[in-house]
DNA sequence: ATTATACTTAAGTATCTGCTTTAGTATTGT
DNA sequence: ACAATACTAAAGCAGATACTTAAGTATAAT
């Protein structure tokens, strides 16, 4: 559907804000309404809605409105993709250090 | 030194840009000069310098200038912290799903 | 000594972000 | 019916971001 690059742009951008991370923190405990998410944040409700829009645009969160209440929940797929991107780079970095270690080891008596 | 929250702000913000992720991609293969990092990017050198400044401010990259050449390398600690933040939330989310599964299991014969 | 290389600094600009306030709409409770 | 609740839409604004070009500095090569 979307290029991996664009997904990561949106995901990391979404995670770069402390209010949005607080919302994610709340949502990993289970679904919550917009008001629930707003309660701990020192911010107007429209402000919270805008953060929610960013989280939904990134695919990290989905929501559904029933009656007058919108219920939000985590969608872990994008979270995994972001985690995996980082893990992959760390692994590459460490693999390189290992190779370097072996090389230094093999040449230490030269 | 810095609050975890501020570190994550800077780290995720740094990773939210595709040019900066490309720079990280290059650096996990090993150290590189500013020119090396600039080569694949369709951008002026000062533009690259500014991205590098963002990466250094986040702690994801460190650099050292020797003679007229600045050499950059990955500093994996912040990368780990970002990865860990995500992993923790995924784990919490999954733990919740498990508890929910057990609950549904225990009550399915009611 | 001159020239080329590898950044570096400064300034300018267009767009994006993270809020705000005001004014709605749709549901639900009394 | 009427009021309260739970969002939602629109507009405005200060500051941040992602570039650019032009001009400069320090080092290395010839």
Description of the molecule:
Two copies of one chain form a homodimer. Chain A has a single domain (4-107), classed as Arc Repressor Mutant, subunit A. A three-stranded antiparallel beta sheet of chain A has the order 1-3-2. By secondary structure, chain A is an alpha+beta fold. The mean pLDDT of chain A is 94. The first copy, chain A, is elongated, with a radius of gyration of 20 Å. Chain A has five helices and three strands. In chain A, helix 1 (4-15) packs across helix 5 (76-107). The first copy, chain A, starts with a helix and ends with a helix. Chain A has helices at 4-15, 18-27, 34-38, 45-58, 76-107; strands at residues 32-33, 61-66, 69-74. Chains A and B meet through helix 1, helix 2 and helix 5 of A and helix 1, helix 2 and helix 5 of B. The structure holds a DNA duplex (30 and 30 nucleotides).
Architecture blueprint of SSEs:
2 copies of one chain form a homodimer.
Chain A: H1 4-15, H2 18-27, E1 32-33, H3 34-38, H4 45-58, E2 61-66, E3 69-74, H5 76-107
Antiparallel strand pairs in A: 1-3, 2-3
The structure holds a DNA duplex (30 and 30 nucleotides).
Radius of gyration of chain A over all CA atoms, rounded: 20 Å
Tally of contiguous helical segments of chain A:
5
Shape of chain A: elongated
What is the helix content of chain A? 55-70%
- End-to-end distance of chain A: 54 Å
Instruction: Give me the CATH architecture of chain A, please.
Output: Orthogonal Bundle
Q: How large a portion of the residues of chain A is in β-strands, by DSSP E?
A: 5-15%
Total DSSP E strands of chain A: 3
Output the structural class of chain A.
alpha+beta
CATH class of chain A: Mainly Alpha
